[in-house]
Amino acid sequence: MQNQMTERLRAAFGRFRAQDLAGAERLCGEILKDDPRHPDALHLLGVVRLAGGNPGDAVSLIRQALEGRSRDATMLENLGVAHLALRNFTSAEALFQEALALGASHGPLYMRLGIALASQGKLPDAEVAMREAARRSPEIPDVHLNLGNTLAERGALDDAMAAYNRVLELQPGNPLANFNLGNLHRMGGRLDEAAAAYERVLAVEPGSADTLNNLGLVHEQRQRLDEAVACYRKALELQPNHVQAMNNLGSVLRTQGLVNEAVACFQKAIAEFPNHVDAHVNLGIVRTEQGRHVEAEALLGRVLRLDPSNFEAHCNLGTLLKLQGRLPDSIAHYRRALNVNPKRAVAHAGFGGANRLIGDLEGAIACYRMAIELDPENADVHLQLAETLKVQGQLEDALASYSRALALNPDHVSALGGMTHVRQHLCKWDGIETMWRRLREAVATGSGGQISPFSLLSIPTTPAEQLACAKAWAQRELLPFALARSGMAFSSLAPRSRQRLRIGYLSWGFHRHATAYLIAQLFELHNRDRFEVFAYAHGPDDKSAIRARLQEACDRFTDVSRESYLVTAKRIQDDGVDILVDLTGYTLGCRPQILALRPAPVQVNWLAYPGTMGTDSIDYLVADPFIIPDGSESFYTEKVVRLPDCYQINDRKRAMSDHVPSREDCGLPDGAFVYCCFNQAYKILPDVFASWMRILSATPGSVLWLLEANRWATENLRRAAAEQGIAAERIVFAPHRPVSDHLARYRLADLALDTFPYTSHTTAADALWAGCPLVTRVGDTFASRVAGSVLVSAGLHDLVTDNARDFERLVIELATTPGRLNDLRRRVQEGRDTCPLFDTPRFVRNLENAYEMMFNSFLGRAS
Question: Which of 469, 534, 558, 781 is the most buried (most CB within 10 A)?
């Protein structure tokens, strides 16, 4: 009987070896029918069930077998394998260790122990077990394969590659070894080697969707996007629910601009796998780009509910919230992203951007420098560092960072624009004309959205080029907010029923800033029977006297500097503002995103920005007949409203010190004829300076008095003067002084010279208010006509020229004809209190009439 059972058991084992699991199970069943506790039959049946995919049954059967043979190492090992299949890794480890303690010592047992240890995260112990397995069984491919897997997980990539290559020596064409080698090459950036490894897999297993997916990733990294798409589509043909391929296909389609197809991929992935994190993240990124911010935030928020430590979700939420101006929340998410992975440059760069927006420039610079340390080849981060250094006044360092960005990407238009503007601030003019030409070419070819519209105003450009740049910039920066209106409750704006119009003034400049000094009296003189004045300040509170004056003059003054764009827009809407007037435009500190959300029925561009905003979210531009002559309206997306006099308001209460410093105090020689120009250095272009040098050459004994901008501009201008035959000491620099003291200095100057094409604005009115005549030259752009408008409104038409030759001729005539200049100075001084330029009450009435016209037009459209 015993011999018969042994024969049946041997037959059952033979069937198992021949992979006839049904036959093996039948024979085991026959043995157990005669002897239900036969340990070898129970053991073999358990192994058969395990091979058939029933590890739970295997555990039960092998445990019964062990009741009769408790110290059988083979049974303990197979029970461990069953627990491994059930992912009971702790139990598996204990069983393998017990089998080893009983004397089992073959390589596969050590390999299985290594798998159990690695599955619990015990990678050092797993490596020890795997290396022992390889030592004991050097000819078994699976041992080296699993050793490679453990080494790869430990980050020992070279050793892992050696293990996989050993597999291929033993078993050429092994698909798993080639697949894993491909993954290691891809992670190491060896894309050609990765592609070759994946192709070897496909030669053996052409239907491997995973391999096609990973080959697609390689093509994507190589920027071979069409080939990547083909791989992902083929993977999905083979395995329609391959969620990674579906998600990756969506990412490439998004890069190719096929946004709707990309969205369909992400949505399908989420529909089939509701907890797929990457698809949620990617769809969230697309919705952010589309301006569907509420939906984007919900998608990324769901990722964090599924995986609270997800780096991509925190980082992209940081970007989304930064875009909305929700800076404290943005910073919190960037911090959490960096807690998860402090080695990701993208999070450091995003964190830097948020810090910069809250005014923490040092913090921003530190973040950008860390991002560059981690990813030194990223031109965009070098650009952001340069922009921050520029705002901080570290102009030479900014120039170096712009240069690095352009070295990495010679076609980086934003870096080119930034570098050009900084070089103008430094008066570093070598090659500047070439840079201007490249910027104009970028606008002409549709890349204007990467150039700050403000920086274009100070270089030789046409109104059409400035319009194209502003429209492209608005399309890139503001379109997402315009698209977001419907989801943010700004889609319907009913007319208000109220006797007084409520005017909201939005500005960064409600502190010691030119805008504040120009506009202060407007708030005081507004007719309170017809208007209420609300101010929204998003710039710094410097606790200055001018800010206090503005606050006192408003019906309501609100500091919104720490609010998101959405919160401020909602506040403006809830305040019932009828006409929202933006006093910043595209200058420093601007927040045009608020206007893009359309919180007020009528929105206006005025005063600080001399040009069009290029967006349909702003209805009107306040100008005058000189600034925008008839026939020039097509260069502005806003409707042009012309005030009868100069568009620029002036404050009759502006203080001017009674103390006039001596020429010696200011470094000016006694008896010299003093030309002055207190415009910012970036407005001084090479041809303008050359014109001034010709004027100095034609008027011996004269000096040019300029505003001290920075040490580099001072050095460069003096050097340029010497190169043009003018002694460096004839260029004198005036340090910055408080406004009242600065205005008093004009009394030491004989004649003010203007820049071109960005002419004097506030500085033109300052000169005339102090009694100093100004000669200007006008062009076709808004910025090139402001000083002309100021002079015309002051009754000084004869000081306006329209070309460089006439400008120089007029200046020289005035400087060499003392009687004519004295008469001119008398006209300036006597006309100050009567000319329209400084008749602030008259200006306010005209502006109020314009506001009523704007709102009545809106009512007509709304009815």
Answer: 469
How far apart CA 553 and CA 564 sit, in angstroms, is 26
811: domain CATH number? 3.40.50.2000
Claim to verify: residue 588 and residue 719 sit in the same structural domain = no
The domain of 799 spans 673-838
- How far apart CA 863 and CA 859 sit, in angstroms, is 6
CA dist., res. 283 & res. 371, Å (int): 26
- The answer to the question of residue 177 being in a domain is no
Which three-class secondary structure string do you get for 789-841?
HHHHHCCCHHHEECCHHHHHHHHHHHHHCHHHHHHHHHHHHHHCCCCHHHCHH
Q: Which helix (H) or strand (E) holds 767?
A: helix 762-769
Contact between 335 and 362 (Cβ < 8 Å): no
CA distances from 608 to 508, 510, 782 (A): 10, 12, 12
Answer whether residue 712 is part of any domain. yes
Do 677 and 594 reside in the same domain of the chain?
Answer: no
Any domain includes 131: no
Going by the DSSP 8-state scheme, the letter that residue 674 receives in this structure is E
Q: How far apart are the C-alpha atoms of 625 and 649, rounded to whole Å?
A: 15
Q: Say how many domains are in the chain.
A: 2
Q: pLDDT digits over 516-571, tens only?
A: 999 999 999 999 999 999 999 999 999 999 999 999 999 999 999 989 898 999 99
Within 445-585, residue ranges assigned H as helices are: 453-456, 463-477, 479-484, 514-525, 545-553, 565-574
Whole-angstrom distance, CA of residue 550 vs CA of residue 91? 75
